[in-house]
Input
Amino acid sequence: MRRLLVLTLIAAMLVSVVPRVAHAGHRHVHPLAVGIAAALFAPLIVAGGILAAVVPPYRPPVVVEPAPVYRVETVRYVTASAAPPSAERNVVRYPHGRYVLRGDGVGTPYQWVWIPNPPPPPPPPPRPVSP
Output
């Protein structure tokens, strides 16, 4: 990380110090600017190389996890006829009626059928009031 930071800083300084002159449609760098940049930054490059050789690189700690244990279970097949679905699982009740699921999905397609509740009984007749 430090090496990358130093190289980026050096590159930025080189680009900012070296003047570019446009002459007759093409660009060139004045040799004096290149010489000055080399004289200024060569010690930094050498110091960066020495630091890279002396300072050990960062290595994160290694965490060793135990290998996963796999268990193979015996598969048991049970041959039993399926029980018919309960009638209550095929009914969705509402206060004013119910939906009933009909059909088995194999021979007869599934179909939801609405069945309304019977109307409530009429209210009792009013009692005569005695005088």
About this structure: The mean pLDDT is 78.
